[in-house]
Specification:
It comes from Gimesia benthica. The chain has 2 helices and 16 strands. By secondary structure, it is mainly beta. It has a single domain, classed as Pectate Lyase C-like, CATH 2.160.20. β13, α1 and β14 form a beta-alpha-beta unit. The radius of gyration is 17 Å and the shape is globular. The mean pLDDT is 92.
């Protein structure tokens, strides 16, 4: 177990997994292998990078603007906005963003199973971009978007990609109203 009181500005490495607890912001690189849990009570800033080789659970108490690269199962809870880049592994990635989503999600190699929950805003364009990576399955629950509430894509033709190996579905709960 590693505990950092305050911001983490030095690179960390945990070859055998374990728990890393940062009471502050992450502004450096963390590399973990094996079964790992990372808790960051503040932001994961633009200089932050997390590389996970093995099953990993991550909690970010603030905003995520850095980079995260996983090659195995990953569960991420971002308490605020998701503005960074996340490369997903296999077999499964689960992401929760308590704020808005303006970041990027893409597979590290081949898209597997991806679940995404965004409490705030996520554009339809950003969701379609994720869909185009041909994840085996991509499901999402979106609080606010720039389209009417409903299930998307709206037809079977668009839910299934041409290679028939990808199934995509997301729910939009509220449409963002234009500012007058």
């Amino acid at each position: 177990m590693m505990v950092i009181e305050g911001d983490c500005n030095e690179d960390l490495e945990a070859d055998e997994g374990g728990l890393i607890h940062i009471y502050g912001n992450l502004n450096a690189t963390i590399e973990v292998k094996g079964i790992s849990e990372i808790i960051i009570t503040g932001d994961a800033g633009p200089q932050a990078e997390i590389r996970a080789d093995g099953s990993c659970h991550i909690f970010i108490g603030g905003r995520f603007t850095g980079r995260l690269h996983s090659i195995d199962s990953l569960k991420v809870w971002i308490e605020s906005d998701f503005d960074g880049i996340l490369k997903t592994g296999a077999p499964h990635t689960e992401i929760y963003a308590g704020g808005n989503f303006h970041g990027e999600i893409l597979p590290a190699e081949k898209g597997a199973l991806l679940g995404l929950t965004v409490v705030g805003f996520a554009s339809q364009h950003s969701l379609n971009r994720i869909k185009d990576y041909n994840y085996t399955q991509f499901h999402a629950s979106i609080g606010i978007s720039d389209v009417a509430p409903g299930l998307y894509p709206q037809t079977e033709y668009y839910r299934r990609i041409s290679n028939r190996n990808s199934y995509n579905r997301w729910c939009v709960r509220t449409e963002r109203q234009p500012v007058e």
